[in-house]
Amino acid sequence: IRVGQLKPGQRLIAEDIANELAMSRMPIREALRRLSAEGLIILRANRGAIVKQLSKDEVQEIFEMRAVLEALAASMAVKKATATDIAELEILLQRLQTVQHDLSLWITSHREFHEKISAISQAPRLLKQISSLHVLIEPLMRVWIESSPESKNVNSVHEKILQVMRDGDADAMEALIKKHSRVTAQVVLQTMF
Description:
By secondary structure, this protein is mainly alpha-helical. It has helices at residues 14-21, 25-37, 56-80, 83-98, 103-120, 124-147, 155-167, 170-192; strands spanning 11-12, 41-44, 48-51.
């Protein structure tokens, strides 16, 4: 689901998945229950499961939550960032720029860049919430990038984010991350709906 192999509305049958993976149905059923709890699929009694199609309101809500939570984590991170953290972000930004012609690698690198910023905050509960949102956002990012190749030109925003981290300005970081997430949300919504 996260890498886009299973599309919204696609039916998932535990028995078929178990056969394909050469394993019993029990772990597959448990995995489907977990995916349902994460909001990625809908379990339907006696009809299997389907990959969840998010509504416009749900997408807006997820991105708004991401904007607020990631901005909080990033502003906390600015106050805790070490020289090593900054160096690691520089490497992640370089990778993001290097792989911009490979959709899958770019999305992974994009997630890693943002996850590193959040991790610097050293706020495990906050990180858990952000991570649960990323699970929902990643398929949306793939739709956006697949339909808008120029979308990967957002690397300049990531350069600004890194510069604000270097400058140590928590308020500027919070505002920049909120704006970045909200602009991304607008473009994703235009692409999807």
